[in-house]
Specification:
Keywords: Membrane, Transferase, Transmembrane, Transmembrane helix. Helices cover about 80% and strands about 0% of the residues. It has 13 helices and no strands. Helix 2 (about 35-55) crosses helix 4 (about 80-105), helix 5 runs antiparallel to helix 6 (about 145-175) and helix 7 (about 185-195) packs antiparallel against helix 8. The model is unreliable at about 10-15 (pLDDT under 50).
Length: about 325
């Protein structure tokens, strides 16, 4: 009986651990395999430690910026072992980036500032990486013209990350509602921005302006999705019908793999490969000529899905409209 009781206790404890870990994730629909197998378990342990010592998610995000920028600095060197140190630093930065969101969900300490910081962290990492690769390439004999693909790839990365993040949050909005999504819209953000003053709220107003521009960029590239979201918010103020949730998830979930491809893991695996081959400059052209077409395809498919549901909602009675 004693052994049985102990076994039951162990099983219960393990089940609770699994449940707590799963609650720290956004959704299996939007998680990438490498994240679930590697980054999320590491991030979860970091999040538990940070919760124990009282560290906030925003502090974790700021620390990740230092490790990510350090990675870029280490990629400037042509010494492969220095580059490996940079790779480990970047992997740890991304583990911290995973941990800040998991910590926020575990402690229910979510904030818009945290979301803005989280998005900006990756930009700081890759600004450092792009600058380092440009300077490294010039040391290897390239002219200053290498800055052209470096800047173009950087701009591409900003749009790719913004749209991938946006489509993930749209998916979460439809399957979990506002409580499970960080989906914002420029109309609400504009109102909040207008309430701030430059004299009294300079820092927050600057951050709010940056985030407002970021959101407007996301909306600019998704016009049909904006029409769908507008009609959904108008007609389903008390919550989405269950059959709409099921139908949207079934049709939209296959698109989540494209958001993963143009995010962190794919680009970094190829970046590491070209660093090992001492051909880091190829990373810029991979970003421009491989990831950008995937971005375009992803946006077009998402617009098709959005248009499909917009027509069904506005012309039919299937969803109780």
């Amino acid at each position: 009986m004693d052994n049985t009781f102990k076994d039951d206790t162990v099983v219960t404890a393990k089940a609770q651990d699994v449940s707590a870990f799963e609650s720290s994730l956004k959704s299996n629909d939007t998680e990438e395999k490498i994240d679930i197998w590697f980054y999320r378990p590491i991030g979860y342990q970091i999040a538990l430690f940070c919760a124990k010592i009282g560290m906030t998610p925003n502090t974790v995000t700021i620390i990740s910026i230092f490790f990510g920028v350090a990675a870029g600095i280490l990629f400037y060197s042509q010494d492969i072992w220095v580059n490996v140190m940079g790779m480990l630093s970047l992997v740890f930065a991304n583990s911290l980036d995973s941990a800040d969101g998991q910590l926020a969900r575990l402690t229910n300490n979510k904030s818009r500032l945290g979301r803005i910081l989280d998005g900006a962290a990756g930009d700081f990492w890759f600004i450092s990486i792009h600058i380092a690769i440009c300077l490294r390439s010039m040391e290897e004999g390239w002219t200053a013209l290498i800055w052209i693909p470096g800047v173009l790839a950087g701009a591409s990365h900003v749009v790719q990350s913004a749209m991938a993040d946006y489509y993930r949050n749209v998916h979460l909005f439809f399957i979990k509602g506002t409580s499970g999504s960080e989906l914002d819209n420029s109309r609400d953000l504009q109102r909040e921005y207008d309430q701030l003053t430059w004299s009294k709220d300079f820092g927050m107003k600057l951050v709010a302006r940056t985030y407002l521009n970021y959101t407007k960029q996301q909306e600019f590239f998704s016009p049909k999705l904006q029409k769908l979201l507008a009609v959904v918010r108008e007609k389903f103020k008390m919550g989405l019908p269950q059959n709409l949730i099921i139908d949207f998830r079934a049709m939209n979930k296959p698109l989540m793999k494209y958001t993963n491809i143009i995010q962190f893991n794919t680009r970094v695996l190829f970046l590491f490969l070209w660093l090992f081959l001492d051909q880091a400059w190829i990373y810029f052209f991979f970003d421009i000529f491989v990831l950008n077409p995937i971005l375009i395809y992803m946006c077009l498919k998402q617009e098709q899905v959005s248009n499909h549901f917009y027509k069904k909602i506005t012309t039919g009675t299937e969803y109780g409209v």
